[in-house]
Design goal:
268 residues; alpha/beta; 8 strands; binds guanosine-5'-diphosphate
């Protein structure tokens, strides 16, 4: 399918002026459209012209309400949680930066980012394109994390940047070839280490690259940079909490998206 850049907007009440929002991104084929379809099922879908976001409004599943609202009174009106998606149909990774600078660095009440990945596709045991799929996913994720890091380092104030969590949704765990979520984490961390060290080396080798990529005094490398091992915990310093959780949107035995709903609910 066409790679999609999705915005998931979740809001507590129709009177909200700025809706809490989540961004849904990831490589083509990860299952974003499938997740969107699941979220929007039976709900209002608003379709607009190309380049303009499509918004979809859905409700938090009852089971997730029960799990996530345990700190609230049953009668709390804010329990009436609604979800709204804004789907930008601009395809492709190259457009990410355009959107990301508008949507990630200057977020409109952005509560988090969901990076969906096909856990079967990035499996090393997936003969043929396994490593290539992992590399592409890692590059994409690297670029997003770097943008989030810049969001903080470009801040004019000395104040710590607002926390922005990111969920790596390891999808298609119904497939027996899929990597379990903890292995998706380590596979992405190690591949991002490779992406980072080649980018750092490229920057050092080329003054032109540096000028092209540089924005002010910002660091152009992720986390600590260099040849060391990248770990998602290095993002803590810039207030980006990375979680990894598995699930499946489809599957012979039905869907399992509970951990993702829980993550959304806990970051609302
Ligand atoms: P997108 O490019 O990220 O929007 O991915 P799609 O939603 O189009 O999904 C790509 C393919 O993966 C489709 O054929 C889906 O039916 C399939 N798919 C999506 N989620 C799952 C899942 O959890 N399990 C399985 N087995 N297939 C899935």
């Amino acid at each position: 399918s066409v790679p999609l850049f999705l915005h998931l907007v979740i809001y507590r009440s129709t009177s909200s002026t700025t809706l809490p929002s989540f961004l849904l991104v990831g490589p083509s084929g990860a299952g974003k459209t499938a997740l969107l379809t699941l979220f929007e099922r039976g709900q209002h879908v608003e379709t607009r012209t190309s380049q303009v976001p499509i918004s979809v409004e859905v409700s938090l599943p009852v089971s997730t309400n029960a799990a996530s609202l345990k700190y609230r009174s049953v009668n709390d009106p804010s329990n009436q949680v609604h979800k709204k998606f804004l789907l930008a149909d601009t395809p492709g990774h190259g457009k990410l930066r355009h959107y990301a600078f508008d949507g990630v660095i200057k977020p409109q009440n952005l509560k988090g980012i969901i990076f969906m990945v096909d856990a079967a596709d990035i499996s090393m045991g997936n003969s043929g394109n396994g490593n290539e799929a992992l590399r592409q996913a890692a590059e994409y994720l690297h670029d997003i994390l770097l943008l989030l890091q810049k969001r903080s380092t470009s801040s004019k104030t000395s104040k710590a940047p607002k926390e922005l969590p990111i969920l790596i949704a390891a999808n298609k765990l119904d497939l027996f070839t899929a990597l379990p979520a903890p292995l998706v984490r380590t596979a992405l961390e190690s591949e991002i280490s490779n992406v980072r060290s080649s980018k750092t080396k490229g920057l050092l080798d080329s003054g032109i690259g540096m000028n092209d990529l540089d924005i002010g005094e910002e660091k152009e490398w992720l986390g600590d940079g260099g040849d060391g091992k990248f770990e998602f915990s290095q993002m803590d310093e810039v207030n980006v909490a990375v979680s990894v959780a598995g699930g499946n949107v489809l599957g012979a035995d039905g869907q399992d998206v509970k951990q993702w709903w829980d993550w959304i609910a806990s970051n609302l």
